[in-house]
Each structure stands twice: as structure tokens, then as C-alpha cells.
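Hey,
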Amino acid sequence: MSDRKKFSNRLINEKSPYLLQHASNPVDWYPWCDDAFNKATRENKPIFLSIGYSTCHWCHVMERESFEDEETASQMNKYLVSIKVDREERPDIDNIYMMVCQLMTGSGGWPLSIIMTPDKKPFFAGTYFPKESGYGRIGFKELINNINNVWLNKRAEIEDSAGQITNHLQKIYSTDSSVKLSSDIIDDAYKYFAKRYDQVCGGFGNAPKFPSPHNLMFLLRYWKRTKEEKPLTMVIKTLLEMRRGGIYDHIGFGFHRYSTDKQWLVPHFEKMLYDQALLAMAYTEAFQATGDDEFKKTVKEIFAYIFRDMTSSDGAFYSAEDADSEGEEGKFYVWTKKEIIEAVDETDSELAIKIFNVESLGNFHSDFASEQTEINILHLSKSTEELSRSIGLDKQILKDKIESIKQKLFEHRKKRIHPQKDDKVLTDWNSLMITALAKAGRAFDNDDYISAAEKCVLFIEKKLTGEDGKLIHRFRNGDASLTANLDDYAFFIWGLIELYESTFKSSYLMKAIDLIQFTLKHFWDEFNSGFFFTPDYGEELIVRTKEIYDGAIPSGNSAMFLNLIQIARITADNQYENFARKLIDCFSDNISKAPSGLALFLSAFDFLIGTSYEVIIVGSKNDPATQKFISIINEKFVPNKVLILHDTLNPECNLPFNYLQSYSQINSKVTVFVCKNYQCSLPTTDINEALNLLDVTP
């Protein structure tokens, strides 16, 4: 029996892959539960709360160094009650204690390490700690002893500090602002991005660089709003550099989490479902804006990766793939020159080495490859056109050769030990993928993408919806549990709205409206406005948070802001827009202080204040002429619009909004009605005229 199997703790009965990774630690781990807090009270011990996720590299390191070490575990068991939390299962807990860490230390990250009282009030925060102290950094073993010492000898000071921190948290989330926003705030956000833009490598700022697709989607809207070329140039450059860099998996497709350098070469190698979804949205919109097939190809490859490696048999999408394999970060993805030559026949190996910038001594230096210094991260430094000219090979022949080389490298790589897959299904992340598939499906006129989105909706309705109609946050191994939070509802509503516009099935839109009503009832703050992260029937924590900043994932409030505006325009019901305006008032102070941190919110704000369009097509969904009109409109970049099909002959498309009854065809032809900024133009049966009304080139 291996040392790892010598022990078993309470995590053995959990469903989370992250918690199960720690189920054989000698640490007496508890999941987040009353038993843990009762034990801490009964035994007069502080609680060590450790939060992470299954594909987190430094979470693995801290486990190997400290949590698998019997001596360290013995200290933990003696002086602490230890709780493990999967941040992806319990983002409500993670949100609170990550804010604590940021307040106390000025930064955050995972693993998140919190020491708190038995009543859940924190008094110490940090992230990764090495086992032993050294180089000015306290080790985890020494930290445990120090915590025990102050707990026994300075208890009053601890209680006072914990109380102050908790009170401060409650004030932070009691948001109420009288600051009034104007369109200037959109300009302010753009100026921030323009100032930080890296003209050489794309992206913003220095290392590390994150994709942040919603920032790029905001810039596309700013380009559309102002007609300035620079924001479009910033988006194109950034998307192309990421696509060519090591952050992109050129062999198996999909994007890694982020780049540790400014050139997009050396990533942290985990792959997250939400990154694939958001990046697919950004590349789809970039294609609509530019017509560049490189963007369309990238979306196609992202979805190929998702369908091949990250989709269950019943249509749900898995959460993530690890950065590590065989105990080393990135080992699955990197190559030596010798391996390239072995994988590709002699005729093409020289070309493969040139295309992917492979060097005999390796093309980067890495902390995670201590024994192997000749490794390469595959990346492109030239476009296919540039490469074709430089080597004197016909572009189409070169493309075919590249695809052949990629396939050979893929087959060779398949034989390696794969990174672990986190196969839990999360409602919020799956909903982002529904949104991405629906957007791409209609932009590229691809029924397979739309069918995949519909299949995932069906999964959520069957497996992640309770008998009471409430959404459930997580599904794994036949078990659906955990209270859904705002992100689950907000992103699912967003996906349903997008799927309606891709299929014109009224059931998706009516479901979205029902869920908006539910969210307003159970998440809305009646006193200060805004949506709480947790519902009024959820677990009571030390504070009920309101998330607004758009980080790796946009906030639920930002998504709900967009949802409310779109539903208001589709239904012609001003109650939804009134709630949207209350959201602005609620968060205006936060927005004015850091507008660049609310890219999706500002994209929705741009929608609200215009220019925006309501487009109603009167015709039969099954009529090829109607389908042609819809396809032509969908391939254009018109972000601030709602598209409605009024098809009186098809019950599947029937919408119960009285205002639609006044819309009819002209001379029995497909007819388009375009309203711009609350003013409606005369109907037209000419698609080119309709496109002119939408301010796009026919």
C-alpha cells in the first residue's frame, strides 16, 4: 500500500475531485459542515480553512509539501480544526474569504489559507506557504505554532481583530451610491486599456497576462460606438498573439489559463471551461467585426477540444483539466526536438521544427522542468501567409502540411500520461458555454453548435434543477447538490436569451423571463438594490456578498444587468429596465473608481444608453427567404440589438407579447422592422436596406 493510501479522512465521501485529492492526507480534514465548527467550539481550537481547486498547481505543491507530510499533519490535527473547500463548488465561501485575504495582505490567490474563530470570523489570511521557513518567508509548520501561541495567549486581541474584519466586510457589501454615471465612464475605461496596451505583444500590462475576453468584447463595442480604429486594432493584435502563443494548445486545441510572461509564450497549463467559453465569444465577435477566418478557425478548434475532451455523453461540459501530470506542471504539453523528429516523419520534421519554433536547447527556461532543460513550448511566430512566403511553399499546400503535422503530434502526445480532468458539471460554467455555442452557432450558421447548446440546456433542466424549480450548482457521478448562486442564474438566463435568438424557440425566452422573476425575488436587495451572490434561502454566512467586478469570469450582477436590458427590449416591459437602472445607481461608486474592472457591465451600459436596435423579422422560420435574412443579419457585428422572429404559423415560435400583433408582412414577403434608439423606421423587404438601418455594410 502506498503512503498516499495509508490514511483516510472525512473527505472520502465527497463528490468534489479537489476534496477527493485530499481524502488520503494524514490531515484530519473536514468538509465545510456544522460538525467542524462544533468541534472547534468544543475543543477550543481555531479553524484552518484551506480553499483551492483541482487544477491549481500551487494547491498541489502545498499538498505534497505539507498536507501529505505526517509531521505537519500531526501539528495541524493537534492545534487546528482543518476544513477543505473547493472554490468552484462553494464560490460563496471563497468570495468572502478571498476578500479578507485581499484586505489583509493586499493580494489573493489559491491555495487560500485562512485562520478563523469557530464562529467563522477570520483573523489571519495568506495563500501558499512552504513547509519550512526560509528566505524571509514563514513556513507552514512555524505558522501553526505561532497561531497556537497567540490563540492561547492573546485570545482577546484575536477576537477583537476578527470582529473588526467582519464588520468591515459587512460595510463593504452594504453598497449604496449617489454617483451618477454618464457615457464618459465608457471613455474612461477605454483610456485605461489604451494606456496599458502592449503594442508589441498585444494584451495589457506586463506579466502575467490573462486573456480577459470580456475586456476585448468591451473594446469591440467601443470601436463600434466611436468608429475609432485603435480599439479594433488592439483586439485584433491581442487575439492573434494569443492564438499564436504558447498559451494556446496548437496540438490539442483550447487555451491555457494565463501566460506567465508578456509574450504569451509560457502559460500556467491548466485549461478551464469558462476560459474556452469566453474566448470563443470574443473570437466569434472578432470574426463578425473583421471577417478574418483565423478567428473563425480558432472558435472551431476551441469547440473541437470541448466536444472531444470536455463533454459528457449526455451533453454536459466538464470543468477543467489540470496543469500537472506525473507531478510536473506542463509535462503533457511540452516537447524536445528529438520527440518532434520521432513523432513526425523525416520529410516533415524540419518543417515542424520551423513552424513551431523548436530549438535544440529549448525555447524557454522553466522552474517546473528541473531535470529536462531542452524542452519547447510550441508556438507560432508567423502567420501562414508569412510562413508561406518565407519558405517558398504554396499557402494551401503549407496549410495541409501543418494539419498533417499537428495530427501526427497529437497521436504521439495521446500516448503520454494525461493531466487529471475535473469532471464535475457546474451550472454557471456550463451556461457560459451555452452562450458561446449559441453566439457562434448563429454567427457561423452552424447547427451543430446550436444543438450542443440545446442539449446542455436539457441537461440543466433535467439534472441541475430541483423539483421545486430551483437551480442546483453542481452535478457529479449522479449527484446534484449545492445551492445555486447568482452566477448560476445570471449565466443560464444569458444563455437562454442567446439561444432564443439562435433558434427563435419561445420556450427558451419564456424560461429566461421566469428565471429573471425568480432571481429578482430571491437575490435582489430590496433596501440598497443590486443582486446578492447568494439567495435568501441559502446558508447564512458572516456576510452576504454582492459581486460586481468582472474578474476571470464576469460578475453575476454584470450579466444580470445585460439580461435585464435585453429582456426589457424584447418584451417591451419597462419594469426590467427600471431594475437595470437601479443596478447602475447601486454600483455607480464602484464603477466610477475602477471602470476597467467592469468590462461586461460597461458593455451592457453601452447597450442601455445607445446606439441600440430592436429588430423584428416577420416571416416563417421554415421559409428559406426568412432563413437567408436571419443569416445575413447574424453574420454582422451588431452587438447592441435584440432580434425577434414573429412567426404566426409556427407555435414553437409564438411569443405572448401584445405589441407583436401589429407587425405584419408587406406583400407576403419577409419583412424587417428596425427600431433604433426608441425610434422605428418604416418596414422593409430589402435586406440591404435593413443592414443600412443597422449601420453595417451590406
